[in-house]
Each structure stands twice: as structure tokens, then as C-alpha cells.
């Protein structure tokens, strides 16, 4: 029982000591401040640190005990005219906080940022339309004749396809081991029927060199075949794609006017996502990504109102000289150029209101 009494006495003494310390601290902190201390004060040009401390403290020398500089300000330990000092309680102790008077305050609100489009048509992901692109090429007759060609199949099978090995002969470019395999196709000629615009080659697959048995002979592996490959088919250096993962359609750099001269395959009409051949190319400054408008040819009609005003003899003459009024054509679709050659190009129909026909005009939009 005596021990319990001693413990209770010690606890009571400890509690009293803590209370005394707290009250002494509170009194000491309270004794720092003047009875009439300022809640806030704006520093003026003629102020000294002693003047400022005297606005808040009974003893200005104790200023470091309550000064709380703002580390985010330039020169936080210095006080400038215009700075606003205010008294606050932080952690139970009085502190002088400062707001820099010349700090600009700006209210931020959500804003819309405008970015100009590269073209009038939004960017197009390549994967959305690349399946509509043709892998065919259009070359000159000279380029075709100079290309290496398949001379033999190493196996007994009659059809050459993926995984087969072949021998090819010709003049081989140095430093190149990958080739595309093509077969000669349609010849495109100018309107005069004589000048050659290009020779279309049908894409068959691609192959890589595995051995060099002789200076002009190469052994190749068919890495992939889209169609049957035969002796006599040609090998050309693989084309590097000039199209990135995203297409940014643009208007041609100069005024363009041409026509659709062919469709792929045996089709007589073409619609959305079909490929067409146009008689414009690198020589016309046409570039990959250019947009062209498809125009349906206008019609020629007799102006019956005008004819009604004519004397009978002139009216009859119009039936023979066929003096007719030309009605302008209309836009029926939009083309995107994706492969350009010297005088011809491949383009895919992005949109159409009616099927495109051979010899429809194509113009700058």
C-alpha cells in the first residue's frame, strides 16, 4: 500500500511539472508579443528591421524567434518595400509570414489550344487504308530489261512459292541482298499511241540472296510469295516506303490536271478504297500524300432559249454545226496519291459519291 501511494505521488508531481512547463512556455511565447501587436504590416521604404520588429514584439531583438522566411521567394531572407508581413500561429508558436508584394497573382482557368491542321483533310492512320495499296510498280522498259531474272528452280515442283530456292542471273547491284519479284504487265502509252509512259510490273513476292555461285549468278530464297513465281520473272531492289505511320494529306504544290487512265485488274469502274492509275507523276511535281479531285465530265447541250431567238436559217444551221453549250462537270470523289513514278502514279479513292470511270479528270482540289 505504501508503494502505491508513492507511485501516485510521483505521477501527480510529473503532471504538475508538465503543466508548469507548458504554462511557462505559453507565457514566454505570449510575452514575446506586444499587447497591441499588428495582425499584418506592409513594409515601406523608410522602414528598418528594428521598426518592423517593434510592430510585433515587446523586445525587437527576439525577431529571429518568430521570423519564418518563404523559401520559394527570391532572396527570402531579405525584406523589401511592398512586402506584406502577417502574424500567424504555427505549431502553437507565433510566426511572422511574408507575402512578396510584387509577386504577380494569376488565376488559371481551362483553355482550348488551337493547333493548325497540316492540311484540309485530317491525318489518316496508315493501317486504316494500307490494305488498299497496290504493291505493283511502274518502270521504264530499259529498267525492266536490265533487271536480273529467274532462270531455274532448285526443286522438282513446277510452282515456285514461299520457302523455295531459285537461281537468278543478271547484273547485280553491290551491297544489296533483298529483292522484290515482279512480272511484266500492261504498257501505258501517251494519247498519241506511240510514246511510252511506263511499264506496269505485277508484284509476286520478295527474296534474299543466300549464295553466289558465279559472278552473274545468285542463289536466292523466296521469303514470301503473293502469287506463283515463274522462270523469266524479274528481280528489283526492294522499295523503301515513303509513307510514315500517319498520312498527312496535302494539296499539290502546283496546279494539277490529268485523268484516270487505268484501274487495277479488269474492272471498268472504281469506288471507295480502289486504286487507280493517273497520268501525273514526278515530272509534274506530284508527291506522295497529295490530294486530287475526281471530276465527272460535263455535257454539251443546245441552248433552246438562244435558238428560239434566231432566224429560221441560223436555227437550222445549229443542227449541222452542233454549236452547243458546255456544262461544267461535277466533283464525284477524292484521290490520295500513295506511289509516284516518272510519268504515272497510283492513287486510292478516299471518298466518292458515284463510281469513277476511265478518263475521268483529276484536278487539284
Could you explain how this protein is built, in words?
The chain is of the alpha+beta class. The protein has 4 domains: about 1-30; about 35-100, Roll (Membrane-bound Lytic Murein Transglycosylase D, Chain A); about 130-240, no CATH class; about 250-365, Thrombin, subunit H (Beta Barrel). It has helices at about 1-30, 50-55, 140-145, 305-310, 310-320, and strands spanning about 40, 85-90, 95-100, 125, 135-140, 150-155, 165-170, 180-190, 195-215, 215-225, 235, 245, 255-265, 270, 275-280, 290-295, 300, 325, 330-340, 345-350, 355, 360-365. The strands form 6 sheets. Strands 5, 6, 7, 8, 9, 10 and 11 form a 7-stranded antiparallel sheet that branches. A hairpin with a 6-residue loop joins strand 8 and strand 9 (about 195-215). It is elongated and about 110 Å long. Mean pLDDT is about 80; it is low at about 1-30.
Q: State the end-to-end distance.
A: 107 Å
Number of helices: 5
Structural class computed from helices and strand pairing = alpha+beta
Quote the CATH topology of the largest domain.
Answer: Thrombin, subunit H
SSE layout and pairings?
Layout: H1 2-32, E1 40-42, H2 49-54, E2 84-90, E3 93-99, E4 124-125, E5 137-139, H3 141-146, E6 149-153, E7 165-169, E8 178-189, E9 196-214, E10 217-225, E11 234-237, E12 246-247, E13 257-263, E14 269-270, E15 275-278, E16 291-296, E17 300-301, H4 304-308, H5 312-321, E18 325-326, E19 330-340, E20 345-352, E21 356-357, E22 361-363
Antiparallel strand pairs: 1-2, 2-3, 4-12, 5-9, 6-7, 7-10, 8-9, 8-11, 9-10, 13-15, 13-22, 14-21, 15-20, 16-19, 16-22, 17-18, 19-20
